[in-house]
Design goal:
78 residues, alpha+beta, 3-stranded antiparallel β-sheet, two-stranded antiparallel ribbon, 2 helices, 5 strands, 17% helix, 29% strand, globular
C-alpha cells in the first residue's frame, strides 16, 4: 500500500457539491473521482468514500469532534 495522504483543502461547485480536494503536499486540486479511488485503496488518512442506496457517491472526512476539517468547511461553505 502507498503512503497515506491527507486531504487539506476542498472546492465546491455553485450548488455546494464538493468537486475537488487538495492533498497535503500538492499545490493543485485532485478531482473528487480520483480522490474517491484513492480512498477506496486506503490511500487517504482522513477521508473515505461513501456509497449508499440512491444517494450520489461522495467523499467524507473521517468523523471527529472538529468541524474545520470537514470538506464543506474547507471549501468555504460553512
Amino acid at each position: 500500500m502507498s503512503k497515506q495522504r491527507k486531504v487539506v483543502g476542498a472546492r465546491a461547485d455553485s450548488e455546494g457539491d464538493i468537486t475537488h480536494v487538495r492533498l497535503e503536499g500538492n499545490q493543485r486540486f485532485t478531482s473528487i473521482k480520483k480522490a474517491m479511488e484513492l480512498a477506496d485503496r486506503g490511500e487517504l488518512s482522513n477521508a473515505h468514500s461513501v456509497r449508499r442506496g440512491n444517494a450520489k457517491p461522495h467523499l467524507r472526512t473521517n468523523p471527529d469532534s472538529r468541524t474545520r476539517n470537514n470538506l464543506d468547511h474547507m471549501a468555504g461553505d460553512t
